[in-house]
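Intended use. Records such as the CCHC-type domain-containing protein entry shown here are meant for training and evaluating sequence-to-structure methods. They are not intended to support clinical decisions.
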Amino acid sequence: MPATSAPANGACYSYPISPTATKLLEQRHKCLRNTETPPIPGKLRPSTLTLRAKPLWDSAPPPTLPATPAVIMEVADEGHTITAEEFQAEHWTPVLYKAYASRPASSQKPLPYPNATFEAADANARNAAHDAAAATGSGTTPARLPPATKETRITVKRSKQLPPLPPNAIRVIVRPRGELRLRDIPTPRLTKAVQAELQITLPDDFCLRIHPTSNTFTAVTTHSSTAEVLKTLTSLTIGDHTYPCVAYVAAPPGATRGVISNAFYDETPTQLYQDLVIRNPEYAILAARRMGKTHSILITFDANEVPHSIKYMGAIHRCTPYRGSPDACTNCRQPGHRYDVCPNPKSNLCPRCGTQHLPQEPPCTPKCILCEDSHLTGTGSCKGRNLHQPRKQIKQPETQQQEPHASFLTATPTLQDALAKSREEAAAAKAEAQAARAEAAALREHIAKLEAQYSCHKLSKPTYPRSNCITASSSQSTHSPYHSQPHLTPSKRKKPKAAEGQDSPIPAVAHDSHPGAAAVPIIDSHDGNSKP
């Protein structure tokens, strides 16, 4: 399409516009024309547009619209004149997108060392230029770079969220052995195998859940008798094979575990547990055991927090929360399960480094299963220690009021006896407290009565007549009910001095302090004669 006349600073071109664009331009032109904005000196009015429309169609033009401005678009291009075909070409790109298109897709950040021409990922090539320049004596020696940092990539395989277990139920965990892969066995078949091995009829509330990552399963029931039988499970028969297994009662969901160090000596498990229960009556201790062959003791508490200190065998030990190491198998070198429940065949790999070799001195360099670093698996400095922790189960609301954690206590006879004993002691203490409260109430009532009687006696005090002579029988003498000094005891009254020639200081005459008092004769009990 030929270009039209252009102004001095550029070129002007006209090209056809669609009807939709024409209507939009008309509406905008009307809106700007109806505005009452006054003209600004030196600038165009808002109604003055750079778009002057005049439709140019190849075919017959459509009917003329009223008050239609000329549809001619002026395009200014500084520098040189272009045609309409060049303007409508597809290779035109907006400036904003052109800036992003000019940037490479994966642009690497420039190195802080501009003179380095070697690859930064190779530790040996990083300092090759420096060593070569130093050997030849070149004046432009690049700076020697620090060694490359080793990147540790840890791939974490998260297990899916397991279905929740019924609340307030006894949980028995079974760990099968002998290369049994539980994820390949249907749950109903495993339930029938458990029932056939124990030869019992499972209750209606019995349920079973398989943990595919740890290769264990949990049996749940609310009957303590069924839990006692499940705890005796020692083998499972699946098809033609019999696999050994170990079953134990799990701690309640709300229990916490603490560790005391350098405490165990040579006590039996029963002595260990009983000593902790007797010396720490303020804490509810559910279980306690020795940690392997160490001198540390693992204690399970029925509380949300671990106590600060624990008494054991006459000593006070600091109790710290237990942080179990993540499960890692030294047989297949995979996290998630342990060596005893590994479903893979025995590989005879070294548990420290993961290679096959004979025992050697000094020991081989360890290699962690979790992060593949040079340390033992699951130690405190391991980077992947917290990445392989199992997910916490969602706490279910309690639907009925039951005895707290009866599942864990009824399955262990020693703990059941301790619970019964603690209940008896609590009942006795409660009865003693009630008796003490009743006795205190009776004592307060008696004191109130005495205070009332004393106040009445003080307000109405009787007067007694005094006699000049008091007769006494031959066996004993009678004294006046009121003395001259009632506030003094007989031992504190002043005693008269003994007369000359008498050994006894006992006076022969009783004195009185008020004036006009007569002497009271004392009658001898032997001869009945009175002495003045």
